[in-house]
Amino acid sequence: MQFTDRTSRNEFLQQKIEAVYSQLTGNFSRLVRIEPLMAEAASAFPGLVPTRAELDVEAERKLKDKLGLENDQALLLSHILAHPKCGTHLCHAMLLPRPETTAALVTLDAQGFVDLGPVRVERHGRAVHLLCTNPHYLNAEDQATLDVMEIGVDLAILDPGSDIAVLRGQPVQNAKYAGRRIFGSGINLTHLYQGSIPYLWYMQRELGFVHKCFRGVASPGVLPDDVNGVGHEKPWIGAVEGWAIGGHCQILLVMDYVLAAHDSYITLPARKEGIIPGAANMRLPRFTGDRLARQLIQAERRLDCDSVEGRLICDEIIPASDMDAAIERTVGMLTSAGAVGAIGNRRAFRVAVEPLDLFRRYCAVYAREQAACHFSPALIHNLEQNWGATGR
User: Fold this and answer.
1) Contact residues for 222 (Cβ-Cβ < 8 A; gap 6+)
2) Does residue 1 belong to any structural domain of this protein?
3) How far is CA 70 from its chain centroid?
4) How many domains does one find in the chain?
5) Residue 213 · residue 251 · CB < 8 Å
6) Do 207 and 193 share a domain, yes or no?
7) Do 159 and 27 fall within a single domain?
8) Domain identity same for 220 and 239
9) How far apart are alpha carbons 139 and 185 in whole angstroms?
10) Under DSSP, is residue 108 helix (H, G, I), strand (E, B) or coil?
11) Residue 48 and residue 140 in one domain
12) What CATH number has the domain bearing residue 36?
């Protein structure tokens, strides 16, 4: 079929999405991640999504100069995720451990740690610590952190020598905050403006490591939907020091227990950035109620962790100097009755508040709307006006 414009692509996908996805996955016999799935779609259905060569040229452009070719990837992903059978199959594929995890697990078992650059995984007694660092960018997330973060989450979950995982930021090197631990600053807005964060970054992140923290790592032959099957998972402790901005605030919403330093704070500056804050629109109202969630996402409201509203997200506020001891104490508290009950309760909470089908349907909307935001002139304006992007 000849695709002359986005309308013709949309009409084709409305009628043929199951046949398209079936062809790309060998009649649903192969679980294929988003990234290779897009490449296979470009080959199997010329003109449906951009080719690798087209994307390579696009990657060299600043965000404001991009042609928006990745909108066609968003269109395909939105149709896949909106289809119950196709979307569930894709979610399953994205929850499988990455192939790099097998060798890294051997290293973790032998050394007690694995250094992945932006991510370091360490065993501490019955806990495994996932330590994140992007020191020149206040521990922000970007293309360089994405793959290794997912491998790190795989390692933390699949490590047989631990019962619980801890997520924490490493000290940064920024002149103003040198040596201070920062939980994280969300998406790297400098890299976003420069065009080095592609559209698929958002989808790989949300269906990949963030979802794995929430739902666990899947096995190929078992549907990870809590009702028909289970995967491998651990409870997670989030340790907030400094701040949790944007994407790092989103991560707190999939943690089982959040420790926060008394001087830390949380923001979700989606209006300033002009993008959708991952799955926060779905998850945040469960913590704060709808009205406060809208204030955070749409009106730039900041929450000090040590406030009435901050405690809706943070379980315990502690002196900043006591974080190490608080982590050790919380690990003991959450594992004292064994891991089985903790994991069972996670699944019971999850099936009630966010079953896989709800997540899938949300991501169908997110896939489409985030692309519209990513390539909107309003995003460029927001980055230039609110971030001073032209001077960075």
Assistant:
1) 228, 229, 230, 231
2) no
3) 19
4) 2
5) yes
6) yes
7) no
8) yes
9) 6
10) helix
11) no
12) 1.20.58.1300
Pair (166, 290) in one structural domain? yes
Q: Amino acid letter at 88?
A: T
Same domain? For 183 and 217 the reply is yes
pTM of the model: 0.96
Residues 308 and 163 reside in one and the same domain: yes
**Domain co-membership, 369 together with 337:** no
**Residue showing tokens 């979802």:** 211
Q: What residues form DSSP beta bridges with 169? A: 132
CA distance 266 to 277: 13
Distance of CA 309 to the CA centre of its chain: 24
Q: Are 241 and 320 in contact, with CB atoms under 8 Å apart?
A: yes
Per-residue pLDDT of the chain (392 residues; tens, 9 = 90+): 778 899 999 999 999 999 999 999 999 999 999 999 999 999 999 999 999 999 999 999 999 999 999 999 999 999 999 999 999 999 999 999 999 999 999 999 999 999 999 999 999 999 999 999 999 999 999 999 999 999 999 999 999 999 999 999 999 988 889 899 999 999 999 999 999 999 999 999 999 999 999 999 999 999 888 888 788 999 999 999 999 999 999 999 999 999 999 999 999 987 777 899 999 999 999 999 999 999 999 998 999 999 999 999 999 999 999 999 999 999 999 998 777 778 989 999 999 999 999 999 999 999 999 999 999 999 998 888 877 766 66
Q: 41-47: long-range contacts at Cβ-Cβ below 8 A with a sequence spacing of 24 or more? A: 41/76, 45/1, 45/20, 47/2, 47/3, 47/9
Q: What is the CATH number of the domain that holds 340?
A: 3.90.226.10
What lies within 8 Å, CB to CB, of 255 at 6+ separation is 167, 213, 236, 237, 238
Please name the amino acid found at residue 281: N
> By residue range, what is the domain housing residue 53?
6-95+361-391
Q: In Å, what is the CA distance from 102 to each residue of 80, 155, 303?
A: 29, 9, 40
**Nearest by Cα to 69 from 60, 77, 80, 58:** 58
Q: State the chain's maximal CA–CA distance in angstroms.
A: 63
Instruction: Say which residue the tokens 């002359």 belong to.
Output: 4
Residue 273 lies in a domain: yes
Output the CA–CA distances (angstroms, integers) from residue 320 to 176, 248, 261, 314, in the order listed.
18, 18, 5, 14
Long-range interactions of 274-277: CB distance < 8 A, separation 24+: 274/373, 274/376, 274/378, 274/379, 274/381, 274/382, 274/383, 275/187, 275/202, 275/370, 275/373, 275/374, 275/379, 276/366, 276/369, 276/370, 276/373, 277/246, 277/247, 277/249, 277/250
